[in-house]
Structure formats: C-alpha cells, structure tokens
Write a structure and sequence with these properties.
The chain has one domain. It is about 60% helix and about 5% strand.
Length: about 190
C-alpha cells in the first residue's frame, strides 16, 4: 500500500536528480528548491504577521485561528505526506517557476518543518482545546514569525541550524552524504 502511494508522490520529501552537484559536491540525496522554500516562508510570514497583529492590537483571534489551521495542515503535509501536497509549497513553486532553482538538501528542511508542525500543533491545542488566548500564544507566534522572517529575508533556516547542531552532538544520525544548505553556509559535516 505504502509503495503504491509513493508511486503517486506520497511520502516523497524532495527529489533525487541524477548527476546533480551542489557547490562542487555530488548530491545523490533528495533535494528541494531553496527559492521556493523562501517564497513559501514569505507567504507564511505575511499571513502570520497579519493574524498576529489582528490578535495583538485588536484582540481579534479569528485570523490567528484560521492561520494556525492553515499552518498546521501545511506543515503536516510537508512533514508526513510530502511536499507535493502542501498548498503553500504549490503556490510558492508557481511564484518562482521562472527562476533558476537553487537546490538544497531536503532532510534538514523536513526537520525544520517538523519544528513548525510542533509549534502550530501546540497553538491548535491552546486555541481550540484549552481556549487560551494570551501570552503563550503570542510567544509561540513570535517564535514562528521570527523563524519565517529569518528564512525569507536572510535565507537563514533556524531549524536547519538546530538540525546541524544535533548532528554535531551525535543526537541525530549522520547521513551518508553531506546535504547542501543554501549559500553553503550550514556546513553539516560527516565524519
């Protein structure tokens, strides 16, 4: 069953491009288009900042609730089902379709999206299960917005940095090949 679903693009995190080299190194691992990822982060940041200010200044939590559901669903698709089924990824692919792709490793991006899934999941619980509307929401939203801003404005993937640190500490298993990061800055080393 799983193999049949994979045939249709389920559970596929990036694409393997035969013969691809990134920064002079072979890239035989799944990759994603960094330009589309940054565009997606920008779209999410715009939605998130709008909803945040509606909640913070106007105390109107309707938009936050809508955006949290959208974010949770989108991160769930990216992390569990595959990027092909993420609506924001589809939109961002459309936005950057005429630009030359800049490929990066998919594994660290999936880890970063896992952080987004966790934070949006906590927000879902706070808003819809416990009815919390206040400081905890603002802190979590602030963290999410900061991460998205860093990605879209500066190309810094905070989740990827955390992934790299966990690899360095031996908490996560090293990959056979060093996955490339945008601008070759994360330097995930394989011993």
């Amino acid at each position: 069953m799983i193999e049949k679903l994979k045939k249709y693009g389920f559970f596929r995190y990036g694409q393997i491009i035969p013969g691809l080299t990134i920064y002079g190194q072979p890239a035989p691992y799944p990759v994603l288009n960094e330009r589309a990822i940054r565009a997606g982060a920008g779209i999410m940041f715009a939605l998130g900042i709008f909803a945040f200010f509606q909640a913070f200044y106007l105390r109107d939590f309707l938009y936050i609730k809508i955006v949290v559901v959208i974010f949770f669903f989108d991160f769930l698709m990216k992390v569990v089902v595959g990027t092909k089924f993420s609506p924001i990824t589809r939109l961002s692919d459309l936005v950057v379709r005429k630009q030359q792709p800049e490929y990066v490793g998919a594994i660290q991006k999936r880890f970063a999206w896992g952080i987004g899934l966790m934070l949006s999941g906590v927000m879902l619980l706070l808003l819809f299960v416990f009815g919390v509307q206040g400081l905890p929401n603002m802190i979590i939203c602030g963290i999410c917005l900061a991460f998205m801003f860093m990605e879209t404005a500066f190309g810094i993937c905070v989740g990827c940095k955390i992934y790299s640190a966990l690899l360095a500490k031996g908490i996560l298993k090293q990959q056979e090949h060093k996955p490339a990061c945008a601008g070759n800055v994360c330097a995930i080393t394989v011993d």
